[in-house]
Design goal:
This protein is of the alpha/beta class and about 450 residues long. It has 2 domains: about 5-180 and about 365-435, Alpha/Beta hydrolase fold, catalytic domain (Rossmann fold), CATH 3.40.50; about 185-360, no CATH class. Helix content is about 40%, strand content about 15%. It has a 9-stranded mixed β-sheet, with helices on both faces. The longest helix is centred in the middle third of the chain and has 22 residues, at about 185-205. The two termini are about 25 Å apart.
């Protein structure tokens, strides 16, 4: 790789990790000489393969949006699977990690309208253009590479195929076949049904929790239950624990929180600090500014999304606080009340409102190009996935040219991190076969 942009080089756990930083336009469609930001990526190669210049490069698109990539401190799990075959580029997507960060205490714009305009440039289309600049700078203008997209990273991979398929020789997508034919309303309507299924599965496994959830919701709806910092926990905030139901042991995680909360009510009359902390910890991704402000915008395909998730959930009787035997727990969704109730999000209240109600979004996908795609694509669709709805994902996979999917109910959304060996073995075999046939 080109060394002109190397900022660090470290040997750790039988890997060589090299940090690269480049400058890119904030607005890729703007004129030359406009505002720039920096984007950082780590090139990781197995120590025993470091001299192998023929080793193919794969660009890892992280889940998110807005999730940074931690320093790869150990060679294991999913990274080890990739290092057996590839030189891996781990991209800190713009606004995260070692790239120019977006931080609540140091916002680049103070006016909500200005910040909304700034954040227009932090969706998948800009991320993909940053990655392409990395490819040309580090590998060379005519160099090829492959893509791996996990969750939101799969959305980025499909945008990449829409914009820059020319130098991509293979794509792996795990739990990230974006619903390219649907707007935010359609996406959240489908996800509400999927979450209702996951709720039913949860209560079938832990039937006693229905009465417990009912009691907790009633308590939190009528009492000022605050933690040691004076922050109130509301019923609707507690119900967001449903986002855990897509984890490998998510039902048990939620059961633990519900059982503990019910016990606290019986013995203390309030929820203990451990429960407050557990809810806050499980919901911590939502306190990430890019995630909280742009999660719904991932599905923006035209006008403002207008708080699509909130409108869908508010209109669904299964999620009403007075639903019997208990309201459904909610999934991976951002609601306007979060920017009132959660201290870490309050600074973004006006910004969130502006983004949801004022910003019109351009399409992230070229459907004609995706239909005509010749790049070999393989991936997983998880049958019970409450984050990327299976019906919409399968619809996308059927539309995409040269694509093969593994539909499975044996694994959850994070399977590539939890059981990487089994998942990688099958996906690598699928990709090798499809590339050989292309």
């Amino acid at each position: 790789m080109n060394v002109d942009h190397v900022v660090s080089r470290t040997a750790v756990d039988r890997m060589i990790v090299t940090g690269h930083r480049i400058e890119v336009p904030l607005d890729w469609s703007g004129p030359a000489g406009t505002e720039t930001i920096s984007v950082f990526a780590r090139e990781v190669v197995a120590a025993e393969k470091v001299e192998d210049q023929s080793l193919p490069v794969i660009c890892w698109y992280q889940g998110g949006p807005g999730m940074e990539f931690a320093f790869p401190a150990s060679r294991g799990a999913w990274l080890e699977q990739l290092l057996t075959r590839y030189r891996v580029l781990l991209l800190d997507q713009r606004g995260t990690g070692m790239s120019t960060p977006l931080e609540a205490r140091s916002l680049p714009r103070s006016d909500p309208g200005e910040l909304a305009e700034y954040l227009r440039h932090f969706r998948a289309d800009s991320i993909v253009r940053d990655a392409e600049r990395f490819r040309s700078v580090l590998l060379g203008e005519e160099a090829d590479w492959q893509l791996f997209g996990q969750s939101f990273g799969g959305f980025c991979s499909l945008t990449h195929l829409s914009l820059f398929p020319e130098h991509v020789t293979g794509v792996i997508i795990t739990g990230g076949f974006a619903p390219v034919l649907h707007d935010a309303d359609g996406v959240y309507t489908a996800l509400a049904d999927r979450m209702a299924e996951r709720n039913a599965d949860f209560l079938a496994r832990f039937p006693e929790d229905a009465e417990r959830v009912r009691r907790i919701v009633d308590h939190l709806s009528s009492a000022e239950d605050v933690d040691a910092h004076g922050e109130r926990l509301t019923a609707r905030a507690f119900l967001t624990l449903g986002t855990c139901l897509g984890h490998l042991h998510g039902a048990a995680e939620v059961h633990d929180a519900v059982e503990r909360a019910a016990h606290d009510l019986e013995t203390l009359g309030v929820l203990g600090g451990g429960v407050h902390q557990q809810v806050a910890g499980l919901m911590s991704p939502a306190t990430n500014p890019i995630y909280s402000l742009l999660q719904e915008a991932c599905y923006g395909q035209g006008g403002p999304t207008r708080w699509a998730a909130a409108r869908v959930i508010d209109a669904d009787p299964r999620y009403r606080l007075d639903a019997l035997p208990a309201p459904c727990l909610t999934g991976e969704m951002m609601f306007p009340w979060m920017f009132e109730e959660w201290a870490s999000l309050r600074p973004f209240r006006d910004d969130a409102e502006a983004i949801a109600t004022q910003v019109s979004w351009t399409s992230l996908y070229d459907l004609d190009r995706l239909r005509a795609n010749h790049v070999p694509v393989v991936g997983t669709v998880y049958w019970n996935d409450p984050y990327v709805e299976r019906g919409l994902a399968m619809e996308t996979a059927a539309l995409l040219g040269n694509c093969e999917v593994w539909i499975t109910n044996e694994h959850e959304h994070q399977a590539y991190r939890v059981t990487p060996g089994r998942v990688a073995e099958r996906l690598f075999a699928m990709l090798d076969q499809r590339r050989a046939q292309s």
